[in-house]
């Protein structure tokens, strides 16, 4: 007979007997009890971890998480989790080095690795603080993100249409289909709830999201007009089809209010339910990751068909994140006008 | 109001319904929180310690056992 004991920390890991292991020899623990402060974009990732007698990981099971389902499906799979077997608190747990991340789920992969690393350290060496931190992940993704945003900024200032369309095309391909990066209500909700992923491991994501937000505040609708891959996709569909149906300005004005109503309702939901993933309604992940529910595919199909007949219908009427950026841009204009 | 206006309003209404349905679906997945049932606990190949011993050690370490399970 063996025994698995789930524990919660009564005094805090640092206050247990210094240098003495908390759990050893054939025990399992719940990471939410040991390292609830380590988060992905949707908060802590709850895992059940079994330890061997050396205090190394024997098995891992993801119990629950609030990461965006289209991205994070792979973090529960054995192909990813089996990499952690046999690892102990002396290992690095760095995605891209000793751990292979799940494609399109770098944030969630890093969160799983950091959660396990932190839990093991707290269990095996209470009071010990690891000096070795994950290195700044200045990889190709980071440099390409900086390069593309610089190009888009240049297009913004030169006001040349061909530069803008070239930039948008690159954005659709790279930020959209390659990286599946975009500002959505889920990512904004994560920021609102301060569920921020590890900075060092996800520096390219920070550059993308915060340059979108900060530049929109400083210079106006930069993200929506120049950076948004889904906006770009709608523009290109509309340009190819060249068949715009006129709408009465009054109706257009009423439809534009929908995105603001959505923004307020979804923000209240995120803040009251403390979960950013529940407001994942946009078709962004469906198109760029080619994953989604039946309803998500239906939304995408309708929006793309609508884009053939109208200029950026999703952005104009339904994009709650766009409504937030619009307000941010207006706030920026007010601030700089006063000065 | 033109026919095209009516058509766009209708499509917008359908989309808003689908958004609400998607958010409702997301919410119902989370509340109650999704717990994987019949989770196979990570198995330990050999008996490593007796329960009283583990409980004593947890007590000494300032922890309290919340749940203990036996398995073959």
What are the SSEs and their pairings?
The complex is a heterodimer of chains A (339) and B (72).
Chain A: E1 2-9, E2 28-30, H1 31-34, E3 46-51, E4 57-64, H2 69-72, H3 78-81, H4 106-124, H5 140-158, H6 161-178, H7 185-192, H8 203-219, H9 222-227, H10 229-241, H11 249-273, H12 284-289, H13 294-309, H14 313-318, H15 320-338
Antiparallel strand pairs in A: 2-3, 3-4
Helix pairs in contact in A: 5-6, 5-8, 6-10, 8-15, 10-13, 11-15
Chain B: H1 3-30, H2 51-60, E1 63-71
Q: What is the terminal separation of chain B in angstroms?
A: 73 Å
Molecular shape of chain B:
rod-shaped
Largest sheet of chain A: 3 strands, antiparallel
Query: β content of chain A, as a range?
Result: 5-15%
Count of the separate structural domains of chain A: 2
Helix content of chain A: 40-55%
Strand order of the largest sheet of chain A: 2-3-4
Number of strands of chain A: 4
Query: Please, how many domains of chain B?
Result: 1
The total count of helices of chain B amounts to 2
Describe the structure.
The complex is a heterodimer of chains A (339) and B (72). Chain A is mainly α and 339 residues long. Chain A has two domains: 13-124, Sufe protein. Chain: A (Alpha-Beta Complex), CATH 3.90.1010; 140-338, no CATH class. Chain A is 54% helix and 7% strand. Chain A contains 15 helices and four strands. Chain A has helices at 31-34, 69-72, 78-81, 106-124, 140-158, 161-178, 185-192, 203-219, 222-227, 229-241, 249-273, 284-289, 294-309, 313-318, 320-338, and strands at 2-9, 28-30, 46-51, 57-64. In chain A, a hairpin with a 5-residue loop joins strand 3 and strand 4 (57-64). The radius of gyration of chain A is 23 Å and the shape is elongated. By secondary structure, chain B is of the alpha+beta class. Chain B has one domain. Chain B is rod-shaped, with a radius of gyration of 27 Å. Chain B starts with a helix and ends with a strand. Chains A and B meet through strand 1, strand 3, strand 4, helix 11 and helix 13 of A and helix 1, helix 2 and strand 1 of B.
């Amino acid at each position: 007979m063996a025994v698995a004991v789930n524990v919660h920390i009564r005094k805090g890991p640092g206050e247990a007997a210094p240098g003495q292991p908390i759990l050893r020899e054939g025990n399992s623990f719940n990471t939410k009890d040991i390292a609830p402060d380590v988060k992905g974009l949707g908060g802590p990732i709850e895992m059940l971890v079994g330890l061997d007698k050396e205090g190394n990981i024997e098995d891992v099971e993801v119990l629950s998480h609030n990461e965006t389902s289209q991205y994070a499906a792979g973090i529960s799979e054995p192909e990813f989790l089996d990499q952690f077997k046999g690892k102990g608190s002396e290992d690095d747990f760095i995605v891209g080095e000793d751990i292979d991340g799940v494609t399109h789920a770098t944030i969630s992969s890093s969160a799983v690795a950091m959660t396990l690393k932190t839990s093991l350290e707290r269990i095996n060496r209470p009071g010990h603080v690891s000096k070795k931190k994950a290195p700044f992940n200045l990889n190709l993704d980071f440099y390409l993100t900086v390069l593309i945003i610089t190009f888009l900024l240049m297009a913004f200032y030169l006001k040349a249409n061909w530069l803008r369309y070239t930039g948008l095309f690159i954005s659709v391909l790279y930020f959209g289909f390659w990286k599946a990066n975009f500002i959505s209500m889920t990512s904004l909700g994560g920021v609102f709830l301060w569920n921020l992923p590890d900075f060092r491991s996800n520096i390219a994501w920070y550059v993308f999201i915060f340059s979108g937000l900060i530049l929109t505040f400083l210079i106006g609708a930069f993200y929506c007009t120049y950076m948004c891959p889904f906006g770009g996709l709608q523009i290109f569909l509309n340009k190819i089809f060249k068949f715009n149906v006129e709408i009465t300005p009054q109706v257009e004005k009423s439809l534009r209010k929908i995105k603001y109503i959505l923004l307020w309702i979804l923000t209240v939901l995120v803040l009251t339910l403390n979960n950013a993933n529940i407001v994942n309604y946009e078709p962004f992940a469906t198109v760029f990751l080619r994953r989604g529910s039946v309803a998500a595919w239906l939304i995408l199909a309708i929006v793309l068909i609508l884009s053939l007949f109208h200029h950026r219908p999703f952005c104009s009427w339904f994009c709650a994140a766009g409504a937030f950026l619009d307000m941010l841009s207006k706030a920026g204009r007010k601030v700089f006008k006063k000065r | 109001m033109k026919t095209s206006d009516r058509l766009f309003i209708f499509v917008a209404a359908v989309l808003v319904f689908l958004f609400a349905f998607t958010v409702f679906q997301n919410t119902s997945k989370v509340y109650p929180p999704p717990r994987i049932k019949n989770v196979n606990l990570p198995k330990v190949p050999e008996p490593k310690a007796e329960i009283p011993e583990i409980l004593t050690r947890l007590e000494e370490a300032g922890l309290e056992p919340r749940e203990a399970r036996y398995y073959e």
